[in-house]
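Intended use. Records like the one below are meant for learning the mapping from a protein sequence to its folded structure. Do not use them to infer anything beyond what is encoded.
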Amino acid sequence: MAATRDGAPAPSAPDPGLYGPSSVTWQCHGDPIMWIAGVRALYLQALHPRAVRGVMENSDFHADAWGRLLRTADFVGTLTYGTTEAAERAGARVRRIHRTLYATDPATGERFPVDDPELLLWVHCAQIDSFLHVLRRSGVPLTAVQADRYVDENRVNARLVGLDPARVPAGTAALAAYFEEVRPRLAAGPDARAVDAFLRNPPTPALLVPGRNLLWRPVAALAYGSLPGYAHRLYGRTPPPTPVITRRLRLTGTLLRSIPAGLRWQLPPGHILKRCAAWAPGAAPRRTHCVHQRPYWTGRGGRRTEHDNGGGFKTWRSPD
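Structure written out for the chain above:
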Protein backbone atom coordinates (compact mmCIF):
# COMPACT_ATOMS: atom_id res chain seq x y z
CA MET A 1 0.00 0.00 0.00
CA ALA A 2 1.32 3.49 -0.84
CA ALA A 3 1.95 6.08 1.89
CA THR A 4 0.84 9.69 2.17
CA ARG A 5 3.31 12.60 2.52
CA ASP A 6 3.17 12.38 6.34
CA GLY A 7 3.96 8.66 6.28
CA ALA A 8 0.44 7.40 7.04
CA PRO A 9 -0.91 4.60 4.86
CA ALA A 10 -2.85 5.93 1.89
CA PRO A 11 -6.36 4.60 1.41
CA SER A 12 -6.37 1.71 -1.01
CA ALA A 13 -8.42 1.78 -4.18
CA PRO A 14 -11.80 0.10 -3.85
CA ASP A 15 -11.99 -3.38 -5.33
CA PRO A 16 -13.63 -2.93 -8.76
CA GLY A 17 -14.88 -6.50 -8.71
CA LEU A 18 -14.98 -8.44 -11.94
CA TYR A 19 -16.27 -5.56 -14.08
CA GLY A 20 -15.72 -2.12 -12.59
CA PRO A 21 -17.27 1.30 -13.37
CA SER A 22 -15.64 1.68 -16.78
CA SER A 23 -17.13 -1.55 -18.14
CA VAL A 24 -20.18 -1.60 -20.37
CA THR A 25 -21.71 -4.20 -18.05
CA TRP A 26 -21.45 -1.98 -14.95
CA GLN A 27 -23.17 0.87 -16.75
CA CYS A 28 -25.90 -1.26 -18.36
CA HIS A 29 -26.92 -3.58 -15.54
CA GLY A 30 -28.14 -0.65 -13.48
CA ASP A 31 -30.84 0.15 -16.02
CA PRO A 32 -34.38 -0.62 -14.75
CA ILE A 33 -35.37 -2.13 -18.12
CA MET A 34 -33.31 -5.14 -17.01
CA TRP A 35 -36.40 -6.47 -15.23
CA ILE A 36 -38.19 -6.84 -18.56
CA ALA A 37 -35.05 -8.31 -20.09
CA GLY A 38 -34.99 -10.90 -17.32
CA VAL A 39 -38.53 -12.04 -18.12
CA ARG A 40 -37.63 -12.25 -21.82
CA ALA A 41 -34.72 -14.48 -20.86
CA LEU A 42 -37.09 -16.84 -19.04
CA TYR A 43 -39.28 -17.11 -22.13
CA LEU A 44 -36.28 -17.81 -24.33
CA GLN A 45 -34.58 -20.26 -21.96
CA ALA A 46 -37.78 -22.31 -21.70
CA LEU A 47 -37.50 -23.23 -25.40
CA HIS A 48 -34.64 -25.66 -24.74
CA PRO A 49 -36.41 -28.88 -23.67
CA ARG A 50 -33.62 -30.14 -21.44
CA ALA A 51 -32.88 -26.77 -19.87
CA VAL A 52 -36.50 -26.14 -18.92
CA ARG A 53 -36.92 -29.73 -17.69
CA GLY A 54 -33.99 -29.17 -15.35
CA VAL A 55 -35.79 -26.18 -13.89
CA MET A 56 -39.12 -27.97 -13.59
CA GLU A 57 -37.66 -30.98 -11.78
CA ASN A 58 -35.34 -29.11 -9.44
CA SER A 59 -37.08 -25.91 -8.39
CA ASP A 60 -40.33 -24.60 -6.99
CA PHE A 61 -40.80 -22.36 -10.03
CA HIS A 62 -44.60 -22.36 -9.90
CA ALA A 63 -44.74 -21.73 -6.17
CA ASP A 64 -41.98 -19.15 -6.03
CA ALA A 65 -41.47 -17.62 -9.46
CA TRP A 66 -41.03 -14.10 -8.05
CA GLY A 67 -38.47 -15.38 -5.56
CA ARG A 68 -36.61 -17.11 -8.39
CA LEU A 69 -36.56 -13.89 -10.42
CA LEU A 70 -35.25 -11.95 -7.41
CA ARG A 71 -32.56 -14.57 -6.73
CA THR A 72 -31.44 -14.36 -10.34
CA ALA A 73 -31.33 -10.56 -10.08
CA ASP A 74 -29.36 -10.90 -6.85
CA PHE A 75 -26.85 -13.21 -8.54
CA VAL A 76 -26.40 -10.92 -11.55
CA GLY A 77 -26.11 -7.94 -9.21
CA THR A 78 -23.45 -9.67 -7.13
CA LEU A 79 -21.39 -10.60 -10.19
CA THR A 80 -21.67 -7.07 -11.61
CA TYR A 81 -21.36 -4.85 -8.54
CA GLY A 82 -19.98 -7.10 -5.83
CA THR A 83 -16.37 -7.39 -4.80
CA THR A 84 -14.23 -9.99 -6.51
CA GLU A 85 -14.52 -12.22 -3.45
CA ALA A 86 -18.31 -11.91 -3.31
CA ALA A 87 -18.67 -12.69 -7.02
CA GLU A 88 -16.38 -15.71 -6.88
CA ARG A 89 -18.20 -16.98 -3.78
CA ALA A 90 -21.59 -16.61 -5.48
CA GLY A 91 -20.33 -18.50 -8.53
CA ALA A 92 -18.89 -21.30 -6.38
CA ARG A 93 -22.23 -21.65 -4.59
CA VAL A 94 -24.13 -21.98 -7.89
CA ARG A 95 -21.66 -24.55 -9.23
CA ARG A 96 -21.88 -26.54 -6.00
CA ILE A 97 -25.68 -26.68 -6.18
CA HIS A 98 -25.78 -27.56 -9.88
CA ARG A 99 -23.34 -30.46 -9.42
CA THR A 100 -25.91 -32.30 -7.32
CA LEU A 101 -28.89 -31.90 -9.68
CA TYR A 102 -30.19 -34.18 -12.43
CA ALA A 103 -33.30 -34.28 -14.61
CA THR A 104 -34.95 -36.58 -17.14
CA ASP A 105 -35.04 -35.82 -20.85
CA PRO A 106 -38.75 -35.51 -21.74
CA ALA A 107 -38.22 -37.13 -25.15
CA THR A 108 -35.82 -39.99 -24.41
CA GLY A 109 -36.14 -40.61 -20.67
CA GLU A 110 -32.36 -40.21 -20.32
CA ARG A 111 -31.09 -38.82 -17.04
CA PHE A 112 -28.74 -35.87 -17.49
CA PRO A 113 -26.84 -33.49 -15.18
CA VAL A 114 -28.16 -29.97 -14.88
CA ASP A 115 -24.62 -28.62 -15.20
CA ASP A 116 -24.20 -30.13 -18.68
CA PRO A 117 -22.08 -27.51 -20.51
CA GLU A 118 -24.57 -27.45 -23.41
CA LEU A 119 -27.36 -26.41 -21.05
CA LEU A 120 -25.23 -23.90 -19.17
CA LEU A 121 -24.23 -22.33 -22.48
CA TRP A 122 -27.85 -22.05 -23.62
CA VAL A 123 -28.95 -20.40 -20.38
CA HIS A 124 -26.01 -17.99 -20.52
CA CYS A 125 -26.50 -17.01 -24.16
CA ALA A 126 -30.27 -16.61 -23.79
CA GLN A 127 -29.69 -14.33 -20.83
CA ILE A 128 -27.00 -12.18 -22.45
CA ASP A 129 -28.94 -11.93 -25.70
CA SER A 130 -32.06 -10.84 -23.80
CA PHE A 131 -30.21 -8.27 -21.72
CA LEU A 132 -28.47 -6.77 -24.72
CA HIS A 133 -31.50 -6.84 -27.01
CA VAL A 134 -33.87 -5.15 -24.57
CA LEU A 135 -31.30 -2.58 -23.46
CA ARG A 136 -30.60 -1.44 -27.01
CA ARG A 137 -34.19 -1.64 -28.23
CA SER A 138 -35.42 0.40 -25.28
CA GLY A 139 -33.10 3.27 -26.08
CA VAL A 140 -29.76 2.57 -24.38
CA PRO A 141 -27.26 4.05 -26.90
CA LEU A 142 -24.80 1.21 -27.31
CA THR A 143 -22.63 1.21 -30.40
CA ALA A 144 -21.73 -2.01 -32.19
CA VAL A 145 -18.30 -1.94 -30.53
CA GLN A 146 -19.86 -1.50 -27.08
CA ALA A 147 -22.33 -4.32 -27.74
CA ASP A 148 -19.45 -6.63 -28.65
CA ARG A 149 -17.65 -5.53 -25.52
CA TYR A 150 -20.71 -6.35 -23.43
CA VAL A 151 -20.88 -9.89 -24.81
CA ASP A 152 -17.15 -10.32 -24.29
CA GLU A 153 -17.20 -9.00 -20.73
CA ASN A 154 -19.90 -11.41 -19.69
CA ARG A 155 -17.80 -14.45 -20.45
CA VAL A 156 -16.65 -14.02 -16.86
CA ASN A 157 -20.27 -14.66 -15.86
CA ALA A 158 -20.11 -17.89 -17.88
CA ARG A 159 -16.91 -18.92 -16.12
CA LEU A 160 -18.51 -18.48 -12.73
CA VAL A 161 -21.34 -20.89 -13.53
CA GLY A 162 -18.91 -23.55 -14.77
CA LEU A 163 -18.27 -22.86 -18.47
CA ASP A 164 -14.94 -22.57 -20.24
CA PRO A 165 -14.88 -18.90 -21.38
CA ALA A 166 -12.95 -19.89 -24.52
CA ARG A 167 -16.05 -21.78 -25.71
CA VAL A 168 -18.49 -18.92 -25.04
CA PRO A 169 -19.39 -16.32 -27.70
CA ALA A 170 -17.15 -13.27 -27.37
CA GLY A 171 -19.08 -10.87 -29.62
CA THR A 172 -22.48 -10.27 -31.18
CA ALA A 173 -21.64 -12.09 -34.43
CA ALA A 174 -20.55 -15.20 -32.53
CA LEU A 175 -23.66 -14.96 -30.36
CA ALA A 176 -25.90 -14.80 -33.45
CA ALA A 177 -24.05 -17.77 -34.96
CA TYR A 178 -24.63 -19.75 -31.77
CA PHE A 179 -28.40 -19.17 -31.98
CA GLU A 180 -28.44 -20.26 -35.60
CA GLU A 181 -26.64 -23.45 -34.62
CA VAL A 182 -28.90 -24.29 -31.65
CA ARG A 183 -32.27 -23.42 -33.19
CA PRO A 184 -33.01 -26.92 -34.58
CA ARG A 185 -32.87 -28.26 -31.00
CA LEU A 186 -35.44 -25.79 -29.64
CA ALA A 187 -39.10 -26.62 -29.13
CA ALA A 188 -42.10 -25.39 -27.20
CA GLY A 189 -43.08 -28.61 -25.45
CA PRO A 190 -45.37 -28.96 -22.44
CA ASP A 191 -42.77 -27.47 -20.08
CA ALA A 192 -42.24 -24.37 -22.21
CA ARG A 193 -45.98 -23.89 -22.58
CA ALA A 194 -46.38 -24.23 -18.83
CA VAL A 195 -43.80 -21.46 -18.36
CA ASP A 196 -45.59 -19.32 -20.93
CA ALA A 197 -48.97 -19.81 -19.24
CA PHE A 198 -47.50 -19.10 -15.84
CA LEU A 199 -45.74 -15.92 -16.91
CA ARG A 200 -48.91 -14.62 -18.54
CA ASN A 201 -51.12 -15.42 -15.57
CA PRO A 202 -49.19 -16.21 -12.37
CA PRO A 203 -51.26 -17.41 -9.40
CA THR A 204 -52.02 -14.37 -7.25
CA PRO A 205 -54.00 -13.84 -4.02
CA ALA A 206 -57.43 -12.39 -4.77
CA LEU A 207 -56.58 -8.99 -3.30
CA LEU A 208 -53.56 -8.65 -5.59
CA VAL A 209 -55.24 -9.68 -8.84
CA PRO A 210 -55.95 -6.06 -9.90
CA GLY A 211 -52.28 -5.21 -9.39
CA ARG A 212 -51.21 -8.25 -11.38
CA ASN A 213 -53.49 -7.29 -14.23
CA LEU A 214 -52.37 -3.67 -14.16
CA LEU A 215 -48.61 -4.14 -13.71
CA TRP A 216 -47.44 -7.68 -14.38
CA ARG A 217 -49.37 -8.57 -17.51
CA PRO A 218 -48.06 -5.60 -19.53
CA VAL A 219 -44.50 -6.46 -18.42
CA ALA A 220 -44.88 -10.12 -19.45
CA ALA A 221 -46.53 -9.14 -22.74
CA LEU A 222 -43.73 -6.71 -23.53
CA ALA A 223 -41.06 -9.27 -22.67
CA TYR A 224 -42.78 -11.87 -24.85
CA GLY A 225 -43.28 -9.42 -27.70
CA SER A 226 -39.54 -8.67 -27.80
CA LEU A 227 -38.65 -12.32 -28.54
CA PRO A 228 -37.21 -13.24 -31.95
CA GLY A 229 -39.57 -14.44 -34.67
CA TYR A 230 -38.64 -18.11 -34.35
CA ALA A 231 -39.58 -18.04 -30.67
CA HIS A 232 -43.03 -16.67 -31.50
CA ARG A 233 -43.49 -19.40 -34.09
CA LEU A 234 -42.53 -22.09 -31.59
CA TYR A 235 -44.86 -20.74 -28.91
CA GLY A 236 -47.61 -20.32 -31.50
CA ARG A 237 -48.68 -16.90 -30.31
CA THR A 238 -48.63 -13.79 -32.49
CA PRO A 239 -47.04 -10.68 -30.96
CA PRO A 240 -47.96 -7.10 -31.81
CA PRO A 241 -46.10 -5.67 -34.84
CA THR A 242 -42.39 -5.08 -34.30
CA PRO A 243 -42.64 -1.24 -34.39
CA VAL A 244 -45.32 -1.38 -31.69
CA ILE A 245 -43.09 -3.42 -29.38
CA THR A 246 -40.16 -1.09 -30.02
CA ARG A 247 -42.25 1.99 -29.20
CA ARG A 248 -43.53 0.36 -26.02
CA LEU A 249 -40.03 -0.63 -24.94
CA ARG A 250 -38.76 2.90 -25.50
CA LEU A 251 -41.69 4.42 -23.64
CA THR A 252 -41.33 1.96 -20.77
CA GLY A 253 -37.60 2.58 -20.60
CA THR A 254 -38.15 6.34 -20.52
CA LEU A 255 -40.74 6.04 -17.75
CA LEU A 256 -38.63 3.69 -15.62
CA ARG A 257 -35.53 5.83 -16.05
CA SER A 258 -37.46 8.88 -14.89
CA ILE A 259 -37.69 7.32 -11.41
CA PRO A 260 -34.89 8.82 -9.28
CA ALA A 261 -31.91 6.47 -9.22
CA GLY A 262 -31.66 6.61 -5.43
CA LEU A 263 -35.19 5.25 -5.19
CA ARG A 264 -34.78 2.63 -7.91
CA TRP A 265 -31.58 1.26 -6.44
CA GLN A 266 -33.08 0.88 -2.98
CA LEU A 267 -35.18 -1.94 -4.41
CA PRO A 268 -33.88 -5.53 -4.49
CA PRO A 269 -31.18 -6.55 -5.08
CA GLY A 270 -29.74 -3.23 -3.87
CA HIS A 271 -26.13 -3.83 -4.97
CA ILE A 272 -25.81 -0.75 -7.13
CA LEU A 273 -26.30 1.94 -4.51
CA LYS A 274 -23.98 0.22 -2.06
CA ARG A 275 -21.16 -0.31 -4.52
CA CYS A 276 -21.35 3.15 -6.07
CA ALA A 277 -20.96 4.65 -2.61
CA ALA A 278 -17.42 3.26 -2.58
CA TRP A 279 -16.55 5.07 -5.79
CA ALA A 280 -16.59 8.60 -7.08
CA PRO A 281 -20.04 9.86 -8.14
CA GLY A 282 -19.09 9.28 -11.78
CA ALA A 283 -19.18 5.53 -11.13
CA ALA A 284 -22.97 5.52 -10.87
CA PRO A 285 -24.49 3.73 -13.87
CA ARG A 286 -26.24 6.04 -16.26
CA ARG A 287 -27.64 5.53 -19.73
CA THR A 288 -25.21 7.85 -21.53
CA HIS A 289 -22.07 6.56 -19.81
CA CYS A 290 -21.35 3.31 -21.59
CA VAL A 291 -18.10 4.19 -23.34
CA HIS A 292 -14.76 2.98 -21.99
CA GLN A 293 -13.14 6.35 -21.46
CA ARG A 294 -10.71 5.56 -18.66
CA PRO A 295 -9.11 2.64 -16.78
CA TYR A 296 -10.72 1.37 -13.61
CA TRP A 297 -8.02 2.93 -11.48
CA THR A 298 -4.75 4.71 -12.07
CA GLY A 299 -2.05 4.34 -9.45
CA ARG A 300 0.46 6.96 -8.32
CA GLY A 301 2.53 8.28 -11.17
CA GLY A 302 0.02 6.93 -13.66
CA ARG A 303 1.26 3.36 -13.27
CA ARG A 304 -1.27 0.68 -14.22
CA THR A 305 -1.29 -3.10 -14.10
CA GLU A 306 -3.24 -5.35 -16.40
CA HIS A 307 -5.54 -7.95 -14.86
CA ASP A 308 -7.39 -10.80 -16.55
CA ASN A 309 -10.74 -11.32 -14.87
CA GLY A 310 -11.04 -14.89 -16.08
CA GLY A 311 -13.39 -14.14 -18.93
CA GLY A 312 -10.66 -13.48 -21.42
CA PHE A 313 -10.88 -9.67 -21.52
CA LYS A 314 -8.50 -7.30 -19.82
CA THR A 315 -9.26 -4.74 -17.12
CA TRP A 316 -6.99 -2.40 -15.23
CA ARG A 317 -6.17 -2.16 -11.55
CA SER A 318 -3.72 -0.19 -9.49
CA PRO A 319 -0.57 -1.99 -8.31
CA ASP A 320 -0.96 -3.89 -5.03
